Amino acid sequence: MRLSNSVVAITGGASGLGEAVARRSIDQGAAGVAILDVNDDAASSLASELGDNALPLHCDVRNGNDVTDAMTAITERFGRLNLAVACAGIGWAERTLAKDSTPADLDAYRRVIEINLIGTYDFARQAASVMSRNEADESGERGAIVMTASLAAFDGQIGQSAYSASKGGIVGMTLPMARDLAPVGVRVMTIAPGLMDTPIYDPVGGAELKERLVGLTVFPKRLGAADEYAHLVQSIAENSYLNGETIRHDAATRLPPR
Ligand SMILES: NC(=O)c1ccc[n+]([C@@H]2O[C@H](COP(=O)([O-])OP(=O)(O)OC[C@H]3O[C@@H](n4cnc5c(N)ncnc54)[C@H](O)[C@@H]3O)[C@@H](O)[C@H]2O)c1
To answer: Lower Cβ count inside 10 Å, N or C end of the chain?
Structure first.
């Protein structure tokens, strides 16, 4: 699949990694780019910058109706969906037991799972349904889904039980979903990004934290650029033999306990 002339839908498309996918898709000549996000202002201003082929859509991935409405809007506007990229996600850190032995907040744990894991699954399953109606290309392919995990799926740090569980769940469902969707010709891949330079770190330390995180990278000795993630999404879209696997994209970073 080429990005040129494809229709791409991106959750969390208004910021960071998702925004980079939106920008790269437009640069590559995508026929449509749907930016699904809870941040309506950011989605609208990005879409107006990207031009007529970009469509901002309000979507909270926790709400199944929002996802369904977005799929309807995409098919009404562009007639099809070829590539679905799940980037919507939140970070969260809380030790299982506080210093005074108070157990962690279970509602916060549920929220992280609902957005990062269940939201990703809902978007993927509804996107696959829309893709199943595409005409297959010469290799039988009807579409591709790229999900976003994290290094924390493998090397979860102190306080990352919820976040690591949500991302480990994405890694775990990659192969079974690829097997489920093989009969309709839809591939499923996951990227596990390392430490990427995006606004996700702004609420928890911003530039100072990012500077410390550079110390964890091996080579190249820097944070990843959001467009490097978008480039990998493009490579996955273009390489039809990639399916059912998680790719670490992390400059050889291995996260220590803290
Ligand atoms: N930046 C990194 O270092 C890094 C590393 C590993 C994994 N990730 C993962 O990559 C994904 C993108 O992260 P980012 O760094 O671009 O963060 P970001 O904060 O820049 O962007 C996340 C976007 O998701 C949106 N969002 C949040 N909750 C949502 C919801 N319920 N419904 C729809 N949209 C929602 C936000 O409004 C925002 O636009 C996340 O899943 C994150 O966990 C990021």
So the answer is: C
